[in-house]
Amino acid sequence: SVSFDQSGYIDALLESYDVTRSADCPHTQDLMTALPKTAEEAAPVDVSEYLALVMKIMYLAKRTRPDVLFPTSFLASRTPPLQLHWSQLTRVLRYLHGTRSLKLTLRPASTALHLYVDASYAIHRDAKGHSGAVLSLGGSSAPVQVISKKQKLVALSSTEAELIALHEALG
Fold first, then answer.
1. β-strand partners of 118
2. What does the pLDDT read at residue 119?
3. Given this model, what pLDDT does residue 61 score?
């Protein structure tokens, strides 16, 4: 078996953003339904600083931490970013603080590829869905590829959103 981790990268990221405590990863429902409750939460944030942090976490998510891929890709689609979105993004950092020792371990039990696909129907402001897919070797091994992205088409039903996700995963 082979293990991969980026704990050094996570530690440097946490230090640069002064993150010293842990939190749970934002849940899908929390991200989708969160609306600013105060004027402070509705305040815009610096777009370049926000996107810089999104890209740093996305780098990590695409390589060794697929557990933060969905919240990061979902928050990347929030434009213009508000203080509420910044708070949710720093919550992902706090989650990484508490889980920085997690590793991906490849233990192929077989050479069979397993593809798992899911989709959310019409969760973005423009009524588009969100696709997610995981490809693993041997079924019980760590993923070898993970996808989480906004769909390019507007689905007319949840079944159609699932078919779009399957097409994107196979494409």
1. 132
2. 92
3. 92
Distance CA 141, CA 22 (A): 27
CB atoms within 10 A of CB 165: 23
Give the chain's residues under pLDDT 50: none
Compute CA 85 distance to the chain's CA centroid, rounded to the nearest angstrom: 14
For residue 65, give every residue at least 6 positions away whose Cβ sits within 8 Å of its Cβ, in sequence order, or none. Answer: 6, 96, 102
Q: How far is CA 138 from CA 62, 65, 100, 108, 156, in A?
A: 20, 19, 25, 5, 34
DSSP state of 97: H
> Phi/psi of residue 2, each to 5°?
-130, 135
The answer to whether the Cα torsion of 59, 62, 54, 15 is positive or negative is negative
> Taking the CB of residue 132, how many other CB atoms lie within 10 A of it?
21
pLDDT in tens, 103-128: 888 776 777 888 999 998 888 888 89
Asked if 19 and 94 touch (Cβ cutoff 8 Å), the reply is yes
- What counts of helices (H) and strands (E) characterise the chain? 6, 5
Distance CA 11, CA 31 (A): 25
3-class secondary structure, 33? helix
Amino acid at 167: H
Tokens of 8: 């050094």
